[in-house]
Write the C-alpha cells for this entry.
Amino acid sequence: MAEFGQQQTSPQTKKRNMSSEISQLRTVAQVALLTHITPRVRSISLDLESSERKICFRVYTDGVLSESALEALSCAVTEIEATLGFRVDEEYLVVPEPGSMEHFPVIVYARCEDSWVDRG
C-alpha cells in the first residue's frame, strides 16, 4: 500500500489511492475518537487535502464545549496527526439542534437527532 498522501501520476492510480486514503483517514479518525466524544458534539466531519498534507476537522456542537470536552477532542486530533503525519486544522461551530450542518465529505460521527428517539 502506498504511503498516506503519496502522489501518483496515473489518473486511475490517483483515484484508487484517494479512495484508499479516505478509508484510512476514516478508520484512523474513528479509532482516535473512541471515548473522546462528549454529549454536546453533534457531528464531526473531515476533508483531506493530500497535496497540502492537511486534514480539515469540523465539529458541530449544540453549545459551547467545556475545557475538558475540548481537551478530549484535542487528544483525538493529536492521535490523528501522529498516525497519519498530516497537519490538522480544527474548526468548532456552535449550531444548536435542529440547526442545519454543512459537513465535509468524510463524516466520522453524527449524533442521532431523530425526533422519535427518546434520548432521556
Q: What stands out?
A: The CA atoms of residues 5 and 51 lie 7 Å apart.
